[in-house]
Write a structure and sequence with these properties.
2 copies of one chain form a homodimer. The first copy, chain A, has helices spanning 7-22, 32-39, 43-52, 65-75, 91-98, 100-104, 135-141, 153-165, 192-219; strands spanning 29-30, 63-64, 82-87, 107-114, 123-124, 127-131, 146-149, 170-173, 186-189. By secondary structure, chain A is of the alpha/beta class. Chain A folds into 3 domains: 7-75, Arc Repressor Mutant, subunit A, CATH 1.10.10; 82-190, Rossmann fold, CATH 3.40.50.720; 194-222. Chains A and B meet through helix 1, helix 5, helix 6, strand 8 and helix 9 of A and helix 1, helix 5, helix 6, strand 8 and helix 9 of B. Chain A binds a DNA duplex (24 and 24 nucleotides) through helix 1 and helix 3.
DNA sequence: TAGATTGTTAATCGATTAACAATC
DNA sequence: TAGATTGTTAATCGATTAACAATC
C-alpha cells in the first residue's frame, strides 16, 4: 500500500535531486540539513518529504547519496527517458528546443511543429520543424509522453485539444492562458510574465515596509 | 491598516488580471464564477481573494471590470512600469529579451549583459548586449527594479551578488540552482526542467492508477 | 559509550470550501 | 418583490515546524 505523496513534496523533489547531482562522486552521504539549505527549506520538512517517498536514512549518519538519487528518480517517474513534442517554433519555442537542461535530464524533444510556412522545413537543434498538420499521423507512428505548448495564447487551447486527442497525457503550457484538458491528462502552466508580476507585488510590499520603517525610525528621539 | 495578502492569493491575482484583459470593451461587470472558471479555482476562493485586496463587488451584480482591473494592477505594484536588466544572452536569455509578453505588461528590459566576446556588442530586440563589467556603472546611472538571470547555473550566484550589490531589489532566476540574496531583496525561481519533472510524477501516478483500474475492471465478471 | 542525526509526534499555521445571510 | 450574487463564517483540509525519543 503506497502512501500518497503530498503535492508540496512532489514540487520539492526535483530540487533535492538537483542538489544530489551537484555533489562530487566522493560524497557518500548527505544530511537532511544539507538538502534543506540547498533547497531553501527546513530540515524537518526534508526528512518528512523523504519519509513520504520511503527513503531509508541512517540515524547519526544521513542518507546514502546514490540510493536517494535513484529513489527520487524512480518516484518522479524518471527511471526511463520521456519523449516530448514541442508545438510553436517562435521565440520561446526555439529557445526551448535548444535548451540543454531538458535533454540532460532525460526529456528528449523528438519533434517540433509550427504552422508558419517560413519556419516549416527549417531545423532547430538538429530537429526539422514540421507542419502542425502532421501531428496526428506522427503521433500514431511514435507516441510521446509530453507536449510543450509555446504558441500564442489564442492557439493554445486548440493545440492542447489536438495533443490530448492524439493521446498525449502530459502538457506543459507556456502560452499565457489557462487551458482545459480531459481528466485523464495533466497540465502544468508556466507563465513568464506572471512570475514578474508576482515579483512586482513583493517589491512594492518591501518598498512600503521599508518606507514605514524609515518613518518609524525618524520618529524616534535622536 | 492594510491586511496582509496571503501568498496564494498574490499568485492568483495575475490570472484574474489576464482574464479581465481578455474581455472585450463592451463587458461592464464580471462575476466571481467567471473569474473562477477562467483561472481554474473555486468561486468562493475568488471572492475571498478579492475581499483581501479590498475589491467592492455589488451583490446580485458582480464586480466592475475596469475598477477591478485597476485595483489588481495597483495591488500588484504595476501602476507604473518597471525596468528590468537581463544577464545572459544565450539561448534562453535571447528569447526572454525578445519576449513580447514582458513589454506588453509593463516590464521594460533596458539592458542585456553577457561575458562572451562573441555576443557582446551585438543587438537583441534593439538592445545592445553589453559586457557584464559595465553592470555596476550602468546601474549607478539608471537604477533598475528587477534583474533576470539567464546564465549557466555556475554563474548564477555571482551574478545575483552583483545585482543585489548594485541595489536591485528583485531577481527572477532561470538558472537551475537556488540562489541566496540579502533579506531586503526578493528572488523568484523558474526552473524549466523542474516543471517537466513534476509533470513526469503525475504522469507516472496517473499511469499506475489507470493500470490498477484496468486490472480491477478485468476482475469483474463479464 | 558519546555524539550525531533520523523519524515521527503533536501543535500550529495557512489555505480551501460549502453554505448562507445580506443586500443589490 | 423575486432573482442573483456578494461577503463572510465556520468547518475542514493540508502543510509546516519544533521538539525529542529512537538509534546508528
Amino acid at each position: 500500500m503506497t502512501r500518497r505523496i503530498p503535492r508540496a513534496t512532489v514540487a520539492r523533489l526535483p530540487a533535492y535531486l538537483r542538489y544530489l547531482d551537484s555533489l562530487g562522486p566522493g560524497r557518500q552521504t548527505v544530511q537532511s540539513s544539507d538538502l534543506a539549505s540547498a533547497s531553501g527549506v527546513n530540515a524537518a520538512k526534508v526528512r518528512k518529504d523523504l519519509s513520504y517517498i520511503g527513503a531509508a536514512g541512517v540515524r547519526g549518519v544521513g542518507y546514502d547519496v546514490e540510493e536517494l538519487r535513484a529513489l527520487i528518480l524512480r518516484k518522479l517517474g524518471l527511471s526511463t527517458d520521456l519523449t516530448v513534442v514541442l508545438v510553436g517554433a517562435g521565440n520561446l519555442g526555439s529557445a526551448l528546443a535548444r535548451y540543454k537542461g531538458f535533454d540532460n535530464r532525460g526529456f528528449h524533444i523528438v519533434s517540433v511543429y509550427d504552422i508558419d510556412p517560413k519556419r516549416v522545413g527549417k531545423r532547430i537543434a538538429g530537429i526539422e520543424i514540421r507542419h502542425l498538420d502532421h501531428l496526428e499521423e506522427d503521433l500514431r507512428q511514435t507516441a510521446a509522453d509530453i507536449g510543450i505548448i509555446a504558441t500564442p495564447a489564442s492557439e493554445a487551447q486548440g493545440v492542447a485539444d489536438r495533443l490530448t486527442g492524439a493521446g498525449i497525457p502530459g502538457i506543459l503550457n507556456f502560452a499565457p492562458t489557462v487551458i482545459n484538458v480531459p481528466a485523464w491528462a495533466t497540465v502544468r502552466q508556466v507563465d513568464l510574465a506572471t512570475e514578474l508580476q508576482i515579483l512586482a507585488f513583493y517589491l512594492r510590499t518591501r518598498r512600503e515596509a521599508g518606507a514605514t520603517q524609515a518613518r518609524t525610525q525618524k520618529r524616534r528621539p535622536g
